[in-house]
Amino acid sequence: MTTGLELGQPQAQAIHSDEDVVRVRQLVRTVAVAVKLSLVDQTKLVTAASELARNTLVYGGGGTVEVATVDNGRRRGVRIIFADTGPGIPDLDLALTDGYTTGGGLGLGLSGARRLVDEFDIRTAPDAGTTVTVIKWSR
Amino acid sequence: MERVPILKIGDILLVSIQVDMSDQTAVQLQEDLAERIVATGCHGVVIDITALDIVDSFVGRMLSTIASISKVLDAETVVVGMRPAVAITLVELGLSLHGIRTALNVERGMELIASARADEYAENLDAEPDAETTASP
């Protein structure tokens, strides 16, 4: 994935409760508005962030999120990195399948979030946690 | 934790979600609504999501669950006021909002419930004479 050049200091937010998931949504919304994403793109990005932040909390046992404005020379975008130090994902292909869940949800969080963003990268290893990086570029 | 207020208007319970709900608030709303349906005997629930700027899979599932619970408690649920950007995002996310009726605004939602109840009443009248012998398909 193209990560782009970071503009300014990224903003961090810890995820340890479902109130923090709400704060992540608000932070992402603020940055998305500042980067001038369209209303539909803002909505898609905030929705993806909500799914991924919940995953960090529920499956990763909590973690951190970092939101940054990035530039790839042609467009600006919002990059969000979700990191946890939880158990990791044993079968990534399975976890990215629509409808697959181990948590009693709808199984749309990871696969749905991937469809809502422009760049999606996931790194995970057993007992080493999971890091998900997403970017949404302005049109 | 914030709590979403539930208003009773005639035979309908109106829920207007005005806050960015935490998951816990959403679950609480589900429970509060079930209790209010039973306590009031209302036959309709209108959930206004005009103020919601996103509906993610958790809130989507909550809406479906509320619709199912209401149905079991003899009440119709209509979700109203979904923003266009939210609708586009929901579809791309892969959420179908199974079993949920929707209307553009609160007024139409209330009309929809009234007409659904009227239809059901008429059907019951028709079916009455041989209700015991006619098995539903």
TrEMBL record, chain A:
InterPro entries from the UniProt entry: HATPase_C_sf (IPR036890), HATPase_dom (IPR003594)
Histidine kinase/HSP90-like ATPase domain segment(s): 40-139
Upper lineage: Bacteria, Bacillati, Actinomycetota, Actinomycetes, Micromonosporales
UniProt organism field: Micromonospora thermarum
Protein name (database record): Anti-sigma regulatory factor
SUPFAM superfamilies cross-referenced by the UniProt entry: ATPase domain of HSP90 chaperone/DNA topoisomerase II/histidine kinase
One Pfam family named in its UniProt record: HATPase_c
TrEMBL record, chain B:
Residue ranges of every copy of the STAS domain listed in the record: 2-113
CDD domains: STAS_RsbR_RsbS_like
InterPro entries: Bact_StressResp_Reg, STAS_dom, STAS_dom_sf
PANTHER family, sorted: RSBT ANTAGONIST PROTEIN RSBS, RSBT ANTAGONIST PROTEIN RSBS-RELATED
Name used for this protein in its record: STAS domain-containing protein
Species annotation: Micromonospora thermarum
